[in-house]
Write a structure and sequence with these properties.
The chain is mostly helical and 103 residues long. It is built from 4 helices and no strands. It has helices spanning 2-14, 21-44, 48-71, 82-102. The model has no long low-confidence stretch (mean pLDDT 78).
Length: 103
């Protein structure tokens, strides 16, 4: 499962310009969201699966929420962008791969 997620993320990154500043912000937001979520989850539960995959769910949820907000924003230039959402989720996947490889 870990390799499948990393493969999908890698393919998505290859198809888009990597050095775009907006994508770096989305990646950082996903990573920070996942890290903060993991810290909160560890404080309140001992469920290993929830500790590992809860941060990814939070990062994906934040990415989707941000893009839905952009789609329905009053600014006509704001649109739903899949690449932004993928980079946000990528920050969560990075945290998961760090915590899986730690053990």
């Amino acid at each position: 499962m870990k390799y499948l997620l990393m493969s999908i993320l890698s393919l998505a990154i290859i198809q888009t310009p990597v050095f775009k500043k907006d994508y770096a912000y989305h990646f950082a937001a996903g990573y920070l969201t996942a890290h903060a979520t993991r810290s909160i989850i560890v404080e309140y539960t001992d469920n290993e699966k929830f500790i590992k995959f809860g941060p990814l769910v939070a990062a994906v949820a934040i990415g989707v929420a941000k893009e839905v907000k952009d789609k329905y924003d009053s600014n006509p230039k704001s649109t739903f962008e899949w690449q932004d959402m993928i980079y946000t989720a990528g920050g969560g996947v990075t945290l998961i791969s760090f915590t899986i490889n730690k053990k």
